Amino acid sequence: MKKIVFLIALQLCSLSLFAQINTDRVLAVGRNALYFEDYVLSIQYFNQVIRSKPWLAEPYFYRAVAKINLDDYKGAEDDCTLCLERNQFLVQAYYARGIARQSQDKLSEAIEDYRKGLEYRPEDRGMLVNMAVAYIQQKDYDGAEKVFDDLMRAHPRHSMNYLTRGAMYIERGDTALALADYDKAISMDPYYAAGYGNRAIVRYQTNDYEGALNDLNEAIRLETRQSGYFINRGLVRYQMNDLRGAMDDYDQVIHMDSQNLIARFNRGLLRAQVGDSNRAIEDFDVVISLEPDNYMAYYNRALLKAEVGDHLGSIDDIDVVLAEYPNFLPGYYSRADAKRQLNDQAGADRDYWIAFEKEEQMRKDRAAGRTGTATADKATDGGEDSDDNTREESDKNINKFNHLVVYDKAEEQKRKYESEVRGRVQDRNVRVDLEPQFVLTYYEKPDPVKKNVNYDRMLEDFNDRMLLPRYLRITNEEAALDEGQIATHFASIDEFSADIAEDPNNAIAYFGRAIDYMLVQDFQEAISDYDQVIAIDPTFTMAYFNRAVVRYKQLEYSLSQATYEEEFSVTSMTLNTGKKPQAQLVDPASAQLRDNKRNLTHEMIVRDYDLVLQQNPDFVFAYFNRGNLRCAQRDYRAAILDYNQAIARDPNFAEAYFNRGLTRLSQGDVNRGIADLSKAGELGIINAYSIIKRMTN
Question: The CATH number of the domain where 356 resides is what?
Answer without folding.
Answer: 1.25.40.10
